[in-house]
Amino acid sequence: MSKPFFPFGILLSMLLAIASCASPNPPAPPIAKSARVFSTAPSPGDYVIGMSAAFTGPSAGLGNELYRGTAAYLEYINRNGGVNGHRVVVRAYDDGYNPNPAIDNTVDLIQTDDVLVLMDYVGTPTVTRVLPLLKKYSDSRVSLLFPFTGAQPQREPPYDEFVFNLRASYRDETEGLVDRLVSAGRKKIAVFFQADSYGRSGWDGVKRALAKRGLELAGEATYRRGTPYSASLGEQVNILRKAGPDAIISIGAYAACAAFVRDARDAGWDVPIANVSFVGSGSLLDLLLDSGRQRGKDYTANLINSEVVPSFEDASLPAVREYRQMMDEYEPTAPSELTGGQYKPLKYSPVSLEGFLNAKVLVAALGRMTGTSGREALMGALESLDGVDIGIGIPITFGPRRHQGLNAVYYTSVENGRFVPIRDWRRWAK
């Protein structure tokens, strides 16, 4: 079998991102060894869902929490008769947030495991490398549902027909952050971003949003994917501080973004720092709170996060009440074969809530399949979802020419050690 084609545009973006690094970075982490396990042993007739995500490494919290949310809802469904009598089980692979294992995992899921559909993939650098495989296997009608990335490639031709997105895009998130910061008088915005296709996607979103307002980036600094929280990001702090921005928008994963916040605050720089949803706000907050307890310092002031799901504190929403109840009752965890037993789950998080909502939409589509139960039937069922209420106050609609389910973005900041919705942006007025 020939190796999957790597789109030139993505390669160019990554090379440009790496070339733009203004300071040395820690060495890249080793590629994770894939683990292949079922959350529940499959039986004939089960709907088998394939997942490749980061269950190990500095971004392990993302794959684990997304899996946990999905597993909680599927546990409930399976205990109550499944979907039309069929259980829904997850075939989970670890890619460590690295593209090459993600490619290998996807080939195995499609060719060897013959899964019904792919779902809950984590990250732009992994998903963008998998997209050409979906096109290559187009005759098999395999789709990728609800990847945990807001990047553009899976939302545009030629790959949009193979992917169903539930979450809003990074352009939606960065547009909203720029709009609110600029409205508060913070017009000099700089970007701290991961030097790959994910970081460049968010960087592009910020630039576009600023250009619409006649503004330019005040500065930029990058870091290498896989940078741990233990790394020093003081050089990136110094680079951006010299540019004199009014605010920073970070496009990265929780370990490096938390390290950047820590080092900025240790340097006495209290500029507002905003992160997009991919960061994993629960894991980010845990790191900063733990450092704060150790050092007797508050690292959470002027910290902003955009999210693509409602607050898990909002018990007025039926889906949030269901999510909290099922997470409490089932206490789902990823199999130890994936995590090595090293991951400490979060009680609740935006990431696991997103996985929970992903599973709700999947089950709604599975319930609409009639006659055949193959990949093409599932795609047709997904495209028939029109105005479906999953309990978040916003209906979900897909269609043959609409593979984007939601565009809602929510904004949070930290109060009393937890992220809560922002009610008034005037606190950051300048």
Characteristics of this structure?
430 residues; Rossmann fold; seven-stranded mixed β-sheet; 13 strands; 40% helix; 13% strand
Short description:
The protein is an alpha/beta fold and 430 residues long. 40% of the residues lie in helices and 13% in strands.
Count of distinct strands: 13
Q: What is the CATH topology of the largest domain?
A: Rossmann fold
What fraction, in percent, of the residue positions are helical?
Answer: 25-40%
Mean pLDDT: 91
What is the H/E order? HEEHEHEHEEHEHEHEHEHEHHHHEE
Strand order, main sheet: write it out: 8-7-9-10-11-12-13
Assembly state of the chains shown: single chain
The helix tally amounts to: 13
Given helix and strand content, the structural type is alpha/beta
What is the alpha-carbon Rg in Å?
21 Å
- Percent of sequence in beta strands: 5-15%
- Termini, distance in Å? 58 Å
Identify the CATH class of the largest domain.
Alpha Beta
CATH architecture of the largest domain: 3-Layer(aba) Sandwich
Low-confidence stretches: 1-38
Mind describing the biggest β-sheet?
Answer: 7 strands, mixed
Overall spatial form: globular
CATH superfamily of the largest domain: Response regulator
**Whole-number tally of structural domains:** 2
What does this structure look like?
The protein is an alpha/beta fold and 430 residues long. The protein folds into 2 domains: 31-167 and 315-383, 3-Layer(aba) Sandwich (Rossmann fold), CATH 3.40.50.2300; 170-307 and 410-428, Response regulator (Rossmann fold). It is 40% helix and 13% strand. It is built from 13 helices and 13 strands. It has helices at 8-19, 60-79, 99-112, 124-136, 170-183, 197-212, 234-243, 254-266, 281-295, 318-330, 336-339, 350-366, 375-383; strands at residues 36-38, 47-53, 88-94, 117-119, 144-145, 163-164, 189-194, 219-223, 247-251, 273-275, 303-307, 410-415, 418-421. A 7-stranded mixed sheet has the order 8-7-9-10-11-12-13, sandwiched between helices. Strands 1-3-2-4-5-6 form a 6-stranded mixed sheet, sandwiched between helices. Strand 9, helix 8 (254-266) and strand 10 form a beta-alpha-beta unit. Helix 8 packs parallel to helix 9 (281-295). The chain is globular and about 60 Å long. Residues 1-38 have low confidence and may be disordered.
